[in-house]
Structure formats: C-alpha cells, structure tokens
User: What shape does this take?
Amino acid sequence: MEERFVILEGKSLDGIIEEGIKKLGATKNDINVEVLESKKSLFSSYFKVKLTMKASANVDKIEKSVTEILSNNLPTDAIEPIKAMEFVYREDGVYIKLNKLVPIEDVRTKIEIKRINNVDLEALNHAIQSGEIKEEIKIAGVQEEIKIDSKCDIRLSADNIEAYVFVTSPLGGKDITVEALYAALKENKITFGIKDEEVKNIADNRLYEREIKIAEGIQPIEGDSARLEYHFDTNSETKLFENEEGKIDYRELSLIKNVKADQTLVTMIPSTEGVPGRNVLGEDIKTKEGKKLLLPKGKNVIISEDGLHLISSIDGEVKIIDDKVHVFALYMVPANVDNSTGNIRFIGKVIVKGNVITGFSIEAEGDVEVFGVVEGAKIVSKGNIILHRGIQGMNKGELYCDGDLVAKFIENSVIDVKGNIHSDAIMHSHVVCGKKLEAAGRKGLIVGGNFKVADEIKAKVIGSPMATITELEVGANPEMRKKYEVLKQEHKSIMENLEKVSQAADLLTKISQKTELTSDKKELLSKSIQAKLQLAEKLEVNNIDIKEMETYLEELSKGKIKASDIIYPGTRVAIGSSMMHVKDPLHYLTLYRSNAEVRIGPYEN
Assistant: This one.
C-alpha cells in the first residue's frame, strides 16, 4: 500500500500539525509527525513537517469508504425485490405472480436461484412485456419446490476491530434466527464486543440483503508524545518607538531577551504509555508509548536533576539556534571597530559604542547594534542590524542580515535584508529587501540607486528635482515562482496517474459484476481502489498548495509604492511584470498594479 502523507510549511508547529490532520482526514492518533526542517530566531520561526498516515489508519479509511459507498448504493427497500415476485407450485405446474413490474434479468436470476427447470421463457417474456402483473402466469411444468433457508456471512475488518454480517433472504425456506447468528459468530471465533441488541434486531425484523456491524472491539489509545514548553518569547518583531512629533526614536531599540542565571528556560512534559485495545476475536491490541524528547540543551544552559527543566547557567541573551537553546553573553566594543580590535566574529550579539571604520567587518550569529557611524565596512548578521546613526558607505559599505535593518540613514552602500528596512533617508544605494521598506522620519527620502523589495515601499519623497535615476521594483521573488512551476508539474503527474488507476478500477469492477475474479485480479482491484483514493486526496492537497501559491504570487503583483509627498521624474517603477517611467512630478499618491499596468491612486496611509 502506498504511503499517505502531506508536507506542510509554516511558522507554528502546532498549527501545521492541526492543518495536516484536517487534510488527511485523520485524528492525532492516526498520524506520525516528522520535522524535516526547522528554524527559529528572535523574530520568527519556520517549520517544514511531513505528516504520514499510519498504515492501519489507511486501511481503516479505505475500508470505511468502501462500506459507505456500499451502504449509500443499497436500495432503501432492499427486501422489495423478493416480494416483487412470488412462485406458486401447483399440481399442474409452476406459476409466477408479479406484484409489480420487475426487470426480466431479476426474474431470471430468481428462477436460477430457485432451480426451476424447463421454464417457458416465451410465456415469461410475454407476461413481463405486456405488464400482466398480479396474475399468476404458468412458466414451467410440474416439479418439486426447492426451499432455500436464509444464511449469513461474516466479514472482519482488516485489523479485526470490527465484524459485519450479511444475511441472505430465504427462498421458500427458513428465516434467520438468533441462534444461527450466534453460531456464525462462534464459527468465526468472534467472542468480544458482540452487539446483542443488533443480533436480536436482525432476526426479529428480518434485516436481509445488507451488511450490518454486529461486533466492535476497543481501539487502542496511543500515549501522548513528550512536548516542550518555552518560558521565554520565541517570536518577536522589531518595535519602533515614535515621539509626540511622530519621529522615530532610534535610541530606544533594545531587542535583547535577557535571562538571569538559574532561570528556567524550557520545561518538558513527559510522554505517556497509552492504553491497549482489544479486537472482536478477544485478542489484545498493543499500543504505542508516546515519543520521547531530549531537552534542547545548548551553550550556557544546564539540565535539572529530574531531567525535566532547562536552566540558564549565566546572565545573558537567550537564543534558539539549530533547535538548541543557548544563552550568550554580549560582546561589547567600548569604542571603535578598528585596528585595536581587528575584524569581529562572534556567536552572540555585538554592541559597538563607537564607529565601524572602513575596511573592517563584523560577523555575528545574533544582532549587531552600532551607536556610531558605519563607514565603508561590512556587517553580516543572522539577526537584526541596528545603526543608531547610519552608514556612510563610500561605495564600499555592505550590510547583510536575516532579520530587520534599522538605520538613521543609508548612503552609498550595498544592502541585502531578508526582513524589513526602516530608515530616515536612503541615498545612492543598491538595496534588496525581503519584506517592506519604509523611509520614515523627518526626511523620509529615497533617492538614487536601485531598490528591489518583496512587499511594499513607503516614503515621503522618492527621487530628486535633478531627475536622479531611482529604480524601484516590488513583487520580485523568482524562487517562489520556481516552486509554483514544480507544483503545476506535480498536478499534471497526479492527474495522469489518477486517470490510469480509475480506468483499471472501473474495468475490473465491471468484470466482477459478470464473473468471479481470479485472486490476482481481486488484489489488483483492491490496489486500484486504494490508489485511486490516495491519489484523489493527494490531488486535493496539491490543489490547495497551488491555490495558496497563486494567491501569494498575486499578492506580490499587488505590491505598492507609496509617497506621502512627491515622486520626482527620473524614477523608474516596476510592479510585478508592469513598468512605468515617471515623467512628471506625482504628489501624495500610491502606485499599484491593475490590468497588467502600473496605476496611480490616492495615497494610502
């Protein structure tokens, strides 16, 4: 049997698991969870998870679907075909009485079952075609009636947790009895979970020609997996503080998550053993103990004596790196980064009280905060970069960070930021921004260079009266478009495979209705039906992923450029695949994409 699974991505692990359970149509106990990839930072988290339906759950789901299909297709008056015709044995021959119009095929089937010989087919056909109902029609010569008693067949589910009975109608013979039902259960070794009331109901009300659940065992309950509770904020966003005049106070940007020595950082809730079950054969069903976890011990943390708590061993900043909890002391540079310090590489946060001189570099696993001016230097951070004054790059300055960049000003530099950018003025620079770029504050200026931003650009003034070439592009994300093409290819492949297995299942089903299938053909039919169900579910997941990706790409094309004062000529704008060159000053406006063109609208604050 093919494995049923979904692979999901998102920020919340619990949210991903809940979404996967819904997509698989399962319960928490029906799935296995495998974390393929996870990243956590001070401001965000990312998980890529594979949720797989357990084998037993797959079997039960398919079996349940088949049972529902069979139930939904049974006629509401399942007993009616038997009452529709009656066979009367007289001294001069066998007569048939039709109580309502019945297809000739059904009549012939009953004649074969009753084993009536030498039937006058011409008389039979004439009676049915002429609609001579409720009258006895002689169809055969004198013969003895063969009486057929009601019989019952027992079917067990694949995991033996349920038993079903199918009772045939008697043909002149005896009706089903409670004793016969219990005898059939005993013969099939069914001893546990028997529905005694259902047994009596079947016999009393002669519930024939339908499959009814007659016994049900107890499903095992798997133990809960261990889980971790974090006692510090694992998600955060950059917070900017404005004074009464609406200006950003770049001095109030402390993003450190401070912890004290002996402070509990993580608590583990242990796994549980689970409760065993029992099938209808009276056999115990083993359960699984919940998965155990190890505490994510990193640097400068210790595990408590009971093994359930992670505790900081020093005062410092707590970080999650590669799924481990670390506590780092700060690396403080009291003056400039220059010859006295050399290049700085540090696993935690770096604070520079002075300037960063041209030619030097800072590389940090945590945030980088500079209170002076950054000259033609290079700063690389896996967290945020905070420049209380700014960067005068002299065409040598470079800033790279995975988080947000906050700077008083940016000039003549190369900037590559995965998060947001906040600055008072950005001049003559090459900028790549993974989220939003905002030039706020007193100047709110963007001029010169080129800017590639995923979501939105917002400023007071864009360009200059001298028509300085300023290139702005929003909605640029080629990596996501490549993923979209992969999803479309997967969709095509699933559709082709689904068509093939559907044809196989339909063909084998039609053959089975006419003749008994060989064992290998039965197995092929079963596999075809299972594959059809699995591919249909996989197609549904694929369609959801494609729709979400199309929405995402459409939102990129909905990126906007906002200017609360003016956009000068010389500014070149690209939104998605649409272009526009600004030839005349534009005031208090929003540029957006509509009908494959860049449009001008009122300013949206």
Summary: Residues 66 and 93 are 44 Å apart (CA to CA). The chain is about 25% helix and 35% strand. The two ends are 56 Å apart (CA to CA).
